[in-house]
Amino acid sequence: MTKARIEARFAALKAENRAAFVAYVMAGDPDAATAARILAGLPAAGADLIELGFPFSDPMAEGPPIQRAAQRALAAGTTLQGVLDLAAEFRKGDAETPLILMGYLNPLVTWGYERFAEAAAKAGIDGLIIVDCPPEEADPLADALDAADVALIRLATPTTDDKRLPTVLKRTSGFVYYVSVTGVTGAKEADADAVRPAVERIRAASGLPVAVGFGIKTPERAGAIAQVADAAVVGSALVDEVAEALAANEDVTVRVLSKVEALAKAVRAAKRSPVTA
Question: What is the pLDDT of residues 100-113, one digit of tens each?
Fold first, then answer.
């Protein structure tokens, strides 16, 4: 099914006139077994789409929470093959929730784009976000993903002007990820009023749903973003729950999924104008 899952999910949510809640978790954090339990529980907790981070030693776009999550996952022995195995296990119990891999280019270069794309599709991955792959250099990766029917999802930012936007959107599919703040993940808070014009501009230029991430930590903030965007993405706040549960010797899975439930409830309750694009 691959990228068709993304299209079907956004079409269904548009018919319901509500935004998606997208949960980001780090594969292998804090260990493989716990990460598998968290991943399996996300749809029932309210995640409409899932972003699954694959750990990398130098995650330049990430703030301290996700950096630490990557370090925990690497210390637990997580590999890219292990991430794909985790996705394949998830797919045994869930054939509908879109699953997006998010990470950095080096591991994919090491694997080879064609080999990676084929393995990702076989594992049930629907889309890929690669933070450090500029569009000018993305054609070989895009070719491999197209052949495997996996969406290449691009990032737009507050500094992406009208001249740059067509380049950013080239060969983008599934949805566009709008980074709502300048800086790294978890460092600032997103403002719905500031985000709205950018979302409308990107949606009109791309014809795709626009997901907003970076800077959404609370149910209130997620609900506000859900009023203006097609999806609200939360990551740092969820990996923070992992760290805090470990520090308090609490059940990591229960704590993360409880946070997801609160965030998803706020997104689903958000009042929004019908989206026509």
Answer: 999 999 999 999 99
Catalytic-labelled residue, pool 7, 51, 136, 250: 51
- Pairing state between β 155-156 and 151-152: unpaired
| Tens digits of residue pLDDT in 160-174 | 999 999 999 999 999
Note if 62 is an active site residue.
yes
Q: Which long-range contacts (CB under 8 A, 24 or more apart) does 118-122 make?
A: 118/148, 119/81, 119/84, 120/84, 120/87, 120/148, 120/150, 121/2, 121/148, 121/149, 121/150, 122/88
Annotated catalytic residue within 7, 16, 62, 189: 62
51 given a catalytic annotation: yes
pLDDT per residue over 82-137, tens digit each? 999 999 999 999 999 999 999 999 999 999 999 999 999 999 999 999 999 999 99
